[in-house]
Design a protein that fits this description.
single chain, 64 residues, mainly beta, four-stranded antiparallel β-barrel, globular
Length: 64
């Protein structure tokens, strides 16, 4: 799953996100979802989430 549908992303899931500062390079950061920040049911660049460590990024990949 690629994290573009809000229904697929839930708090507690392990995901790979692309942080704002890494958008050009595409570097992925792994973490556990704490909050969903995107309200729409679909976003073409990935659902924006806050990780448990406080970092904010768009979900690139759902790992589990």
């Amino acid at each position: 799953m690629d994290g573009k549908n809000r229904a697929d992303v839930k708090p507690g899931l392990r995901v790979a996100v692309i942080l704002k500062k890494d958008q050009r390079s595409g570097v992925k950061t792994e973490g556990i979802v704490k909050d969903l920040l995107t309200n729409s049911s679909f976003h073409p660049h990935g659902i924006k989430v806050r990780l448990e460590d406080g970092q904010v990024g768009r979900v690139a990949e759902i790992l589990e």
